[in-house]
Design a protein that fits this description.
Elements lengths: L2 E2 L2 E2 H32 L6 H19 L3 H22 L9 H23 L15 E3 L4 E3 H23 L1 H11 L1 H6 L4 H23 L11 H14 L4 H21 L7 H12 L10
Antiparallel strand pairs: 1-2, 3-4
Helix pairs in contact: 1-5, 1-8, 1-9, 1-10, 2-3, 2-4, 2-8, 3-8, 5-6, 9-10, 9-11
Amino acid sequence: MLMIFGYPAPLMFGQLLLGLINGAFYALLSLGLAVIFGMLNIVNFAHGALFMLGAFVAWGLLEFLGIGYWPALILAPIIVGAFGLLLEKTLISRLYKLDHLYGLLLTFGLALIIEGIARNEFGSSGMPYRIPDALQGAMNLGFMFLPVYRGWVVVASAVMCLATWLVIEKTSLGATLRAATENAPLVQAFGINVPRMISLTYAGGVALAAFAGVLAAPIYSVNPNMGSNLIIVVFAVVVIGGMGSILGSIVTGFGLGIIEGLTKVFYPQGSATVIFVVMVIVLLARPAGLFGKNA
């Protein structure tokens, strides 16, 4: 059997795959957080609950309407994004000029409400969500068997992250949005509806969380706790990459997922805390994060 650093190759590659899958969710969720914080200056603690809501919407579409995975991958982010737009219009828009603490407390309360309603209605045991037929089975790569769906999750996440980065950093729309966050009155003087743009930005960040939730539904059971189990780690990823940094969230999300996966091979006891150890080291060396801008 092929050995790598004294460990069986299938074990190493298997943990690397698990790390990539976790990294895919870290990247997508931290990307949504970075978009919302970087553009709106709101610490969105409800992001994990909205991730969970995306999985529940996909499950509900299948259970009650017979709408399968592929349409749900489009419909669920739109539905949850519309819900996020409602939250932004009615609650979050009132906090833009206040201290970050108010936004954190409000979104934390929203997360508790959303998760509590889901728990009361569906319980905590979770419901299965079937992998679509086209993505079932596994591919023999020679050195390991790759489950097709898990490979799809990594590819879909990477494509969505790249597309979001290109829109924000390389298009005129992204440039206008960044300008609006720096000097809203000047941008509005050119006839651009800045409040509407900000609302749609929040909805877009929420839709990214819901997209991740649909991807996660066949891997994890659809349950009210699936977002709260991830959100603390995702916030650590955002801090390491740099608050508000789009590229930092993507690179750090995938990178830390791989580090976490390999830690399970070399030092399993440290796999639950390795991300937080990295966060401490990074903040001591560079308080703004790896890709963040110093104040």
